[in-house]
Amino acid sequence: MKIMIILLTIFILSSGHLSAGRLDDLEKELDNKMDLIEKKFDEKSRKLDEQFANTLKDEWFNVKFKEGKPFFDKPKPVTIPQAPKPKTVKPDATPVIIPVLPPEPVDDKEPPKTPPVIGPTEEEYNIYFDFLGKPVTISLPKKVKTLRLNAVKKNEIASFWQEVSTSPHETTLTQLKAYYQDFLKSDWAFLMLLETMAKEVYPEDVNMQNLYVWFLLIKTGYQARVAYDNENIYLLLPSSTMVYGRTYFTFSGEKFYKLSTRGLDKKMGSVYTYKEDYPGANKKLELRIIQWPRIKKIEKTRELTFSHSGKEYSVPVLYQGEIITFVKNYPQTTIDSYAGAPLSDFSRKSLLTKLAELIKGMQETEAVNLLLAFVQKSFAYKTDQQQFGYEKWFFAEETLYYPFSDCEDRSVMFGRLVKDLLGIPVVMLHYPQHLATAVLFSKPVSGDKVKYNNKTYAVCDPTYTGASYGMAMPQFKGVSPEVTEF
After folding, report:
1. Tens of pLDDT, residues 134-166
2. Both 261 and 305 in a single domain?
3. Are both 313 and 227 inside the same structural domain?
4. pTM, 2 dp
5. Looking at the 3D structure of the chain, how many domains does it have?
6. Please, which residues have CB within 8 angstroms of residue 278's CB and are 6 or more apart in sequence?
């Protein structure tokens, strides 16, 4: 509002037509108009909250959860074959361009702004908690901490909404939006912050935690829902990308998943939920990570060794420990969401710098073969079922942390390295029980290939130990995979 007044004042002064007294009158008039707009907005919001509370009092309907579709149609191989010795690379392959490493990260020079502590006013109190190594302060309405759920029933949920929506949450929502913009940078981080905060408010009551997160998500524009059974209240969210292996129900053509940063989804049968969404709250949870949260950087180290063309190599790497915590319970979503996520600043500086030294001056095909050997031999193989008992896909940063990895983890790592170091196109190849990659070389090469968008990509399998470019695993030769860009 003040910015509008200042701009208008500058304009009027430059025209030289009005006196200072008239400008004062104009500022008061604009203030009154802005106050009126704010009152109308508040009144509209109040009416929406009342209507929604009435919706929650209406008859809820029963929905049954369905089993989430698995990504792989068949179990992944428990053991992987050893590739025969590859053919010698022809000397006329396209020379690789000397890689240009990413610039120095801005995070080190421009630390994220900490949202100012506004208040607390007489109606508010502050809570303090740690979020991924960063201290956080949020001002909440005092009324919030007094709310309780007497029973898991629709009328109790409606009463909660009625009470919480009439408490002054303007400061809380302003601070949460500032945290999102300044250092969270993703919806998954935002959900984690809300769940961490709700646990501080209601430490022993998961149902109240879910209700409060539901309220805050709706008030920040997300299409969140709650549902209940005999004992529990569940937070349910639609995703912008496919989610695999999670139970869900469909409402108005939209899949709602039980997603939480606190842990894995338990299998559920049927629940009760309400009929109408909150008007205007239509954002889906975006699971793609374009930028990691600007959280506390905890440096972890690992020494990776591998052999290639008769030489032994050692690659010391750094990775960001807090990222491992951040994505520990990340839902299994589309493979491009993992492959498209960047390496952390630590990994970019250490891993990319060292590998860039190794491939400097190599031909394009030689460089790809070295990167294949690095991924194939630096990491021990185990399926997710062997390591965790369930499917857990890795971001490249996680592959640097966990002792074992399997096909999709290695494909994500290899694809990330090819893009960051060589800058040539790479795609993911989805077979019924396996994931590999394919690279678009600058010139035609021999070996196994796939056609995609009228271009020929050479198969590159980071799991097929000893295989060079153009070598598919024997059981997948001649099989047409599903191709995914990232």
Report:
1. 899 999 999 999 999 999 999 999 999 999 999
2. no
3. no
4. 0.87
5. 3
6. 48, 52, 218
